[in-house]
Structures are given as C-alpha cells and as structure tokens.
Amino acid sequence: MSYRPQTPDDNSYMIEMGDKYSHETSSTGGSLGHDDHTHWRDSDIDRVARSRFVTYFNRLVLFISILSILVFLYESRKPLGSLGDNPPHRLDSDSHQQKLNDSIGQILHPSDHIYRPPTTLYYKWRISTGHRRPDGVLKRVYLVNDDVHHLIEARSGDRLIIHVENAIDNGEETVLHWHGLSMRGGNQFDGAVGITQDPIHSGESFVYNFTIAEDEHGTFWWHAHSQTQRADGLFGGLIVHAPVFEDKNALVDSQPEVSEEQLLLVGDWYHRSASDVLAWYMRAGSFGNEPVPDSLVLNGHGAYSCSDAVPARPLDCEQRQQIGLYISHNTRLRIINTGSLAALKIRTPGNLMKPLTVDGGIEVEGSDIRVSEVGTLWPGQRLDVMLASGQGGLFEIEMSRENFKYVNPALSFNHTFPLEWSPVSEFVATKASTTNTLNLKHLTPASSVALAPKAEQTIVLYSLTQKLSHLRNIPHGFVNNTYWTPQSPPLISLNRTDYDEHQLVPFIRRNTTVDIVLNNLDEDSHPFHLHGYNFYILGTHSTTFSWGSWNPYETEESPGGPLNLQTPIKRDTVYVPRRGYAVLRLTADNPGVWMFHCHVLWHQNSGMAMAIEVG
Fold it and tell me: Is there a shared CATH topology between the 94-442 domain and the 457-614 domain?
C-alpha cells in the first residue's frame, strides 16, 4: 500500500489547484495520478502551505470583525448624557472646524489667554448704524466697526484700552458700560451716563482705560448705557478667563471637563426702534404696560415667522431658516440675557446641563445637578453651564410671561435652534442625581460663609412705577419717591450738595458692611444691577396679599423668615419678586459713585435708578 502524505481534503485541493496538477506528466513521461503524491514537486507543496495560511488568515479577520461588531453593539447600550471625568477626543478636522464656524454659538479661545502673563489689549471701535435682518426683519441697528456684537476676550489682570468713536449718523450720543466688572480704580470709566461720565457726543471720541482685577474672571458683557441703544444691538461679550500657570500642553489636566467654550448672547427683540418703543411706553395711553417684544435673537440671529406679522404694522420680512448650534460633548456654554424685558428659560431635551457659575464667575454647587431645563435668567444676568451629549437635537429658549401684561399676537414665546453634536469618542458615565428643571433662585454657592447677623449700616429702599397727574400720568420708575434722570456734569465730578432733585445717593463709609433691603411694591418683577460690586443675597420674599415689604427699622423679624448667613449666593444682578423684597449684603471696599438700577430697559429709562457713594 502506497504512502499518502497529509494534505487538504482532495475536493478543496482540487478547487484550489485545478486540473492543472491532476494531469501533469512526470519527468519520465508517465502520468502523475492522484495516488502518486509521493512524487509531488516542492513548488506544489509550497502552494498548498500558502493556501492553508490564506484560509486561516481570512477566518481570523472574519472573527475579529464579528467581535468588533458585538463590542460596538454592547457599548452603544450605555446611557449618554452624563458628565464624565473622561473628556472625549475632539476631531480636529476641516469639516469640524467648518461646522464650528457656521454654528450660531460664538467660539471662545481660552488657550490664547490662560497661559500668558497679563498684558495690555488695545481696541479701536467706531460706533455707527446700518440696516440688518437679525431675525429676517429689516431694522436699523448699531454696529461696531461695521459689525455686530464685538467680543472681548481677556484674562485676569489685563489692561483694556478701548478707543470709542461716535459715528452715529443722526447726532445721537452714546456711552458704554462694562457690566459686572468691579472697575477698581477706574470708576470714571464705568460708563454710567450722568453718574460717572457725560455721553460721547456725535463726532467725538472717548478712551476707556481700565485694568481687570487680578482675582476677577468670568462671564461679563459690555453694552450701551445711554438711552435705549442696548435694545437695538449695541452690546457684546466680555469674557475674562482665569489664568493657568502651567504648560500649554497641560490644558486637559487643568480643565479636565471642558472640551470647548461658546458664548450665547440671547435676548428679546423689538422690530420697531427702541426709541419708538420707549416713546410708546412713556405716555399716559400705555397705562404703565411695558412693551411686549416681537421676537428673540441669539448672537444676532433668529428666524421670525413672517406670517405672524400684524397686518396693521407691516414688516419688511424675509423668511429665514434657524441657524443651528454645533458643539462637542462637555462644552461650556456662557449664556447672557441681553434683553430689555423678558426673562428666559433654557431647555435641552434629551441632554443634560450642569450649572457652573452665575454672573461674574461666582461658582455654584452643581456636582450632583444634571438638568434639561434651567430658569429663569433675567436681563443682565449670566449663567455658565456644562452641556453633555445625549439623545437630543434641540436647543430651546422660552420667554417668561411674568412681566407681560398684554398679548402680542406677533410674538412666539418658544424659539428652537437645531443642536448638532460633533463626533466624539465614548466617555464614562458618572452617577449623579438628575431632575427636569433647575430654578436658579435655589442655587447655592460652591463654598459656605459665616456672615455677621447684622450689618454696620442698613439702607431701606422702595421701588415702584407710578402714574402721577403732575407728571401727566406718564409712567415713571421711582426709588424712594425719586425718579432718576442723568445729570450733567456727572455726579463723580460734583460735590454732594450740587446733586439735583433726581439723584438718590446714600453715602457709605469705606469698608463698612452694608445691608440693602430693596422692596418692590410693583406687580412686576425687577432685576436690579449694582455697578462695581458683587453682593450676597441673604433672602427674598413675595406675597399674594399686602405690599410684601419689610422695614427692619420698624420690625426686626423679616416676613420671609430668617436671613441666610451661611450659604447665600453672590451676584451682581438680583431678581426682586413682585410685592416682595430682596436683602443684599456687601462690604463697601470699592470707592466711587456706583449706579444701582432696574435692568429692564423701560424701567431704567423711566427713572428706576439711583446710586451709592462709597468714600
């Protein structure tokens, strides 16, 4: 019996080798039959070995492919939307950058500032006007260097020198305020017309020259503080980054959660000029009803539905598609309410937000907070959140109806922006309590304090909009029976004895601890902003009957209960509820004359403002 070497089975071998080798002739001329394998050539054996290797390799590739698919299917079952400690890898591709450029969010560049030493930043601004279509409706708006919403990015300790030329075509005056900055040593550049400076007249220039404090960082903004120009677009972001004294390559270690930062300037919008809107309000026929806005814009963009326009007031309207927001997982959103009246609610259905800071970089306790809705954010207030990727593809903004006293049929309360996530690698979920909504009034600071039970000085204020016959029943905003109008020369250059009858300016000695009890006798809420200071909010209160006010000189016990002296939040803009009050605590360590006013533009311009003098 002849010997047969081990080979692949004959069938597979014949498929692989073909009839070529079945009928080859040997060197002796005889036929090389199937049973005569002992006479194979070495080349034939090599071909069989290669065939076996290819077969095994293909099977290995198939096994790895199937295993990869199974792993992917298993991993895709992990819940999205949590804020993990492992940040995703961002794709640094041309398509990613192009989508960022097309996004409605304003891209920030912290790495350009956090590793460098303090420096001087120079800006030359030319303020003018032009016609634009922010939400599709043609309107005259204010421009800086022929553009809208100029952004300033800096770091703590930077010096800013901003040369402002007033080139507005109809002779309007203007002035700029740096909202939230302490302006230590720079009270004269605070930009409060009638209090720290005269307005910049048409055709003239003014140089703002101030230094950001070394311990100051966060989300601030600049805006016009003369007349009503803020409502027609004269504002922009002012972001102060906290320095990191490490190597630039250490960015991931120094800010482990942040992948990107974007700025959102969002607020209500009027289709008429703001001066016309104010004139409508400042007449007896308005009965003190604040003008309800027509639309909403985000970073100068919106998509007003032209079909909603009122026939009695036709508009030059072009229908727009809403621009989307393109972000990465764990993006820091710096949100500023730039509006004139409406408070805002922010929703990201299917995604989760983690609160980081409020106003000028005030850190809040948010380690266990994950929400899909935050509210409400009042004009002048700011909120930083971390947004984590999830299932949702919408970014929704709702205007609160709280201060709306009549129906504007042209207005849509809800505005939706498409939300697109950039491709990211998988991240590890962390356990955290999740709720649907976060009420910003209930935020607590990241660290507790121990404040004294009583301040050294207490100032009691009453705010109220009144329609009085000796003022022709035109609504005016009063604080302690005084309605404010700007004075010239400004208060900063005058003796107190030279202040006119429209100036309410309590005097506070330097380094004194002060409580301000701000009572609101109106049916409207008021967001009050104090220039030059942050303050603790020791308590707020509102009632459905009586005035809801509190005078600690009359009764020591407050109607709203004990004051919060351990975990009060700090802000520079406080929500004062209707028929109620807010108690504020500050240490008067920043000398100057500082404006204190309602940030609802129509209230401020009707007189609801005053100042404090620290010296």
Answer: yes
Give the chain's end-to-end CA distance (angstroms, integer).
119
Q: How many residues does the chain have?
A: 615
**What confidence tens digit (pLDDT) does each residue in 132-144 have?**
999 999 999 999 9
Phi, psi of 357 (to 5 degrees): -145, 165
167: tokens are 């080139």
CA pair distance 563, 515, nearest whole angstrom: 11
CA dihedral (137, 140, 145, 146) in degrees, to 10, reads 50
Residues paired with residue 358 on neighbouring β-strands, in sequence order: 362, 383
Q: Are 601 and 268 in contact (CB under 8 A)?
A: no
Which residues, listed in sequence order, are joined to residue 219 by a DSSP beta bridge?
239
Q: Answer whether residue 21 shows pLDDT above 80.
A: no
What's the per-residue H, E or C state across 205-219?
A: EEEEEEECCCCCCEE
CB of 459 within 8 A of CB of 514? yes
How far apart CA 222 and CA 237 sit, in angstroms, is 6
Mention every residue, 6+ apart, whose C-beta is less than 8 A from residue 514. Answer: 455, 456, 457, 458, 459, 508, 585, 586, 587, 588
Q: State pTM to two decimals.
A: 0.83
Domain ranges of the chain: 1-77, 94-442, 457-614
| SS3 state of residue 301 | strand
Rg (CA), the chain: 34
CATH of region 94-442: 2.60.40.420
Contact 445, 357 (CB under 8 A): no
Query: Are residues 606 and 499 in contact, defined by beta-carbon separation less than 8 angstroms?
Result: no
SS3 480: coil
Confidence of residue 26 (pLDDT cuts 50, 70, 90): very low
* Distance (Å, whole) CA 358 – CA 444: 10
Place of tokens 């970089």: 361
CA nearest neighbour of 326 among 104, 88, 135: 104
* pLDDT at 89 > cutoff 60: no
Smallest CA-to-CA distance from 221 within 274, 162, 150 is with 150
Within 8 A by CB and 6+ apart from 210, the residues are 159, 160, 178, 181, 183, 185, 186, 189
Closest-CA residue to 478 (of 174, 265, 470): 470
Classified by CATH at the fold level, domain 457-614 comes out as Immunoglobulin-like (2.60.40)
Distance, CA of 598 to CA of 58 (rounded, Å): 74
The two tokens of residue 18 are 């073909």
Residue 607 has pLDDT above 70, yes or no: yes
